[in-house]
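hiii, so i know i said id send this last week but things got crazy w the move. better late than never?? heres the sequnce for the chain we talked about at the cafe, plus the structure i predicted for it. fair warning i was half asleep when i ran it
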Amino acid sequence: MRMEPGMTHSLMYSSAAAFALDDREVAALLADSRRRNAENGVTGMLVYIRVDDERCAFLQVLEGPEASVEQTYARIAGDELHTDLTVLSRGPVAQRRFAGWSMRFAALPGDDLLDASGRGDADPFQLLRDGAAMERVLAALGAE
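okay and structure toks below
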């Protein structure tokens, strides 16, 4: 699909967190994301995955004007919080999945990630690189 002016651009990525965040830090990250996204016309969803007590990961969908989505992703990619970033999908979409959310949020234990992906025997960090599995996770969380 060719990107027409005014079309929505979507980018889904996963990353490992360089360090685990406590609930207060996650809330601050989410508040900052929502503020910035609202300013830039970006909507989406952030899934914070606590694999175990010391290892965490992110799954995020960003959608909106292509320049805004790509600038947002570039800022995220430059943040020391994120390691092992993997772009799972990127390109034009017919409509936003998260139109009413500057940033929808879900916190997910690692076991729930495995269950929602349909691949309960997988290594969570390998699974985060599987775009189809991550789409199943989003569907299980109610993303349309």
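btw The longest helix spans residues 23-40. thought thatd interest u
miss u guys!!
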